[in-house]
Amino acid sequence: MRNWWRRTRKSLVTLVVSRRPWVQKTLVTALASGVAWEVGDLVVANGGLVAAIAAALSVRISLHKSVREGFGQIFGTAIGAGTALLSTTLLGFGFFTVLGTVVLCAIISRAIHLGEIASFNVPITALIVIGPGLSESNAIRRMSCTLIGVGIAIVFSYFAHPKTPAGRTIDQIGRVGRRASELLDQMAAGVAHGYTQQEAGDWLAKARLLVEEIPGVRSQAQEARSYAKWFPTAEVDEAEDLYSRGVAAEHTVVQIRSIARTLFDTSVDDAGMTDATSQQIARALASASAAIKDRMKSLSGDDSARDKEDIADELRAAGSAFVDEVIDQVDETDPDQLARTISLKANIDIIADSLDLSSPAIRHVASPASSDGILAVSPIAQGKKIRRRIKQMVPSFLKKYF
């Protein structure tokens, strides 16, 4: 019995430690919902349930996102409550009330350009408000409880993740880097020993999946940078460097996908590559993999990592070596295959520039900002647009007043 308990306890500890972020987020969400229930009941009679629902919806993975989404929830609550009252006033209570409320919420959200987060909250809040016992006083109480739940969620969200935004950015970049390195190793081994079209197709599919990780990395890097601008304990320089590394990871992954596509196209062509060229390309891909591994070690603070300039220079040298081999055998190479092989050199060079952050495309070109704010279009821009439309409709002698 004692041995069984020891094994069970060890398994539970291992399970909790390996899933610490999920466990911590779950516990914080549950605690926030419980506190919201108590506070909601304390402030508003029977208001705990609505407050708990709002808290569970609003707790997110980080403080920055929860503040933004919390205000989106507040904005959506106001619109949803007003829409619910309007629908019941016009249609009474029943099937068409619910139908009309959801449709009207969607139209209003679209008309004022609410972001995705707030647009999602509008119909949910409206349906909560439109529940049994609807009246103006009930609607106000439910909206107040929703605001209480959102406020509590914003406070608790600070504890919803064991790491800072910068730490989460490092984790995401590291995860993408490791997957990229593993894929390059697979391609290097395949090219060295001869690969089939099926293998090349698998590499291309994995590269495409890898590219789909980029929006998450970009969003997390933007969050770390925004967080550092207003949170006193965050390092602005560190956040800016991580943002640049996130952009570099994006450039690297895109080049790996291009390499996979080139290798796939080469496998379709009957001409193929010479053995000597294949061996040189395999060495270049293996060098790229090793360079990315060293860069990830440096990112995580591993002292065994080499200097980033040395890593990039070795990778550029490997690219130049296989191009020299291709040029030496230009008479034996199919023109189409020659063009594809030469293009791999450009991919390798861009990866090298990304690893040492020397490319102007990383530092001097801003990435598009996230569009998931409270309002996708600012109130000022919306006001100017409405003003122009009104001005076009009024008589010419009144336009000067607009």
Summarize the structure.
This protein is an all-alpha fold. It has helices spanning 2-18, 20-43, 48-58, 63-91, 95-111, 116-129, 136-156, 165-193, 197-211, 214-230, 236-268, 275-299, 308-328, 335-355, 360-363, 379-393.
Which terms summarize this structure?
single chain; 0% strand; 78% helix; Methane Monooxygenase Hydroxylase, Chain G, domain 1; 16 helices; 402 residues; 2 domains; extended; mainly alpha
Q: Can you tell me about this structure?
A:
The protein has 402 residues and is mostly helical. The protein folds into 2 domains: 140 residues, no CATH class; 199 residues, Methane Monooxygenase Hydroxylase, Chain G, domain 1 (Up-down Bundle), CATH 1.20.58. Helices cover 78% and strands 0% of the residues. It is built from 16 helices and no strands.
Helical stretch count?
A: 16
Q: What is the number of E strands?
A: 0
**For the record, what is the CATH homologous superfamily label of the largest domain?**
Phosphate transport system protein phou homolog 2, domain 2
Task: Assign the CATH architecture of the largest domain.
Answer: Up-down Bundle
Helix content: over 70%
